[in-house]
Amino acid sequence: MANYNIIGRDQKQYGPVTEAQLRQWIVEGRVDAQTKIQAEGASGWKFPSDFPEFRDMANSSALPVPAGGKTSAMAVTSLVLGILGVVTCGFTALFGLILGIIAMVKVKNSGGRLTGNGLALAGVIVSAVFLFMIPVLAALLLPALAQAKNKAQEINCVSNEKQLALAIRIYSGDNKDQFPPASTWCDAIKNEMGTERILKCPGAKPGNRCDYAFNAKLSGLDISKVNPQTVMLFESDGGWNASGGPELMIGNARHGRMFVVAFADGSVQQLREAQLGTLRWDP
User: Fold this and answer.
1) Is the Cβ–Cβ distance between 167 and 185 less than 8 Å?
2) Are residues 80 and 110 in the same domain?
3) Contact 117, 108 (CB under 8 A)
4) Going by C-beta distance under 8 Å and a sequence separation of 6 or more, which residues neighbour residue 279?
5) Are 278 and 230 in contact, with CB atoms under 8 Å apart?
6) Residue 268 and residue 174 share a domain
7) Which domain holds residue 12?
8) pLDDT digits (tens, 9 = 90+) for 182-215
9) How many domains does one find in the chain?
């Protein structure tokens, strides 16, 4: 009479046992429809219904159907990590996708001892969706972030020119209401600036000590005799004490499409390139 080995629900191997003993285990419920059985001397594992000698019991109510297995914790974790992709910008979704695939394989190979294939599948789908959405969201957010950065730099530049314009007017108040000499304007107002940081435009390339230029036509003039809308300061790459006219103005806006200009009355405006042609340079 042939002997048999079985893999129990605890995944341990038992046997060899006789056919009669194995039939008794079936009756007792120790062997169910998903129990793996190996005939002694054989190399493969089969289910009870695959053996002719047990087929009669497999086709009757004697062979119990295994009770619902334990839900795979990995499948649950996969779904949770996938959902958390909402608040982690898809970071946890990568792990959710990997765990979901592994969980599906484990459930499939568990012989009914594990359930949760649906949860694992949901985790894989949700995670994959968020991973797919990352480049889409990046494509949508990057232009907005760039625009926000340009706006922040523009506001900082406006603040710089307002402080420089105030420093020039303070200098003028101490020097017979005259504008500083164009060739040394940075040196002339250095004591009134408080800090040289206001000479640095956040949108300019590093390297220059000063990122603004002074309208040379205002050099030494009486403030009261100058048209208030005359250009006084403008963005330039000329460096320290740079002075001149439109030829020194930067060619490309540092803040997206906006140029920052300060006027003789101390006001500051953000202008588009199309508006630069309307600027007044002569006092």
Assistant:
1) no
2) yes
3) yes
4) 231, 246, 261, 271
5) no
6) yes
7) 3-58
8) 999 999 999 998 899 999 998 888 889 999 999 9
9) 3
